[in-house]
């Protein structure tokens, strides 16, 4: 995004300078060079815009105590300690295991969490290995940020049972 903004700024600067150079007598060569620079900046800005449009539509968030998957308006959470199995095979396909591009996270007392790592811009096997490592190694998880709601609760505790106005 910063590259696209810089490219747009340089496109504007080079365009103004090119117009100024073309208005001068014998400024055609300089104007042509500046116009080529402006065109290059516009191409770079267009490329940055295309990359921004192809940004992954989903988000995978890793926190100390949980994994958070956001796909559109759908939010799924999985606590690290509740994960039993992390696999790339179809659920309940034993003994005929078929490897897929979907990651299935089996959770204790909850339905499995199924996600497609490619929608996050990740390779399936690499995503599985990362999640397994974070699940199994608390020291590695300790380097992750805290989940925001835990921080919010520690700053302003939830108070329940207050009287409402007007009093009934």
* CATH architectural designation of the largest domain: Roll
Query: What is the CATH superfamily classification of the largest domain?
Result: Pleckstrin-homology domain (PH domain)/Phosphotyrosine-binding domain (PTB)
Query: How many β-strand stretches?
Result: 6
Query: Alpha-carbon distance between the termini?
Result: 54 Å
The mean pLDDT is: 82
Q: Please give the largest β-sheet.
A: 3 strands, antiparallel
Q: Number of folding domains?
A: 2
Radius of gyration over C-alpha positions, nearest whole angstrom: 26 Å
Sheet with the most strands: spatial strand order? 1-2-3
CATH topology group of the largest domain: PH-domain like
CATH class of the largest domain: Mainly Beta
Give structural attributes.
single chain, 168 residues, alpha+beta, PH-domain like, 2 domains, three-stranded antiparallel β-sheet, 5 helices
Q: How would you describe this structure to a colleague?
A:
This protein is α+β, with helices and mostly antiparallel strands and 168 residues long. The chain has two domains: 2-53; 58-154, Pleckstrin-homology domain (PH domain)/Phosphotyrosine-binding domain (PTB) (PH-domain like, Roll), CATH 2.30.29. The chain is built from five helices and six strands; from the N terminus they run H-H-E-E-E-E-E-E-H-H-H. The protein has helices at residues 2-23, 28-53, 124-136, 138-141, 148-155, and strands spanning 58-62, 66-71, 74-79, 83-89, 99-107, 113-115. A three-stranded antiparallel β-sheet has the order 1-2-3, with no helix packed on it. The chain has a three-stranded antiparallel β-sheet with strand order 4-5-6, with helices on one face. A hairpin with a 5-residue loop joins strand 5 and strand 6 (113-115). The longest helix is centred in the N-terminal third of the chain and has 26 residues, at 28-53. 12% of the residues are buried. Residues 156-161 have low confidence and may be disordered.
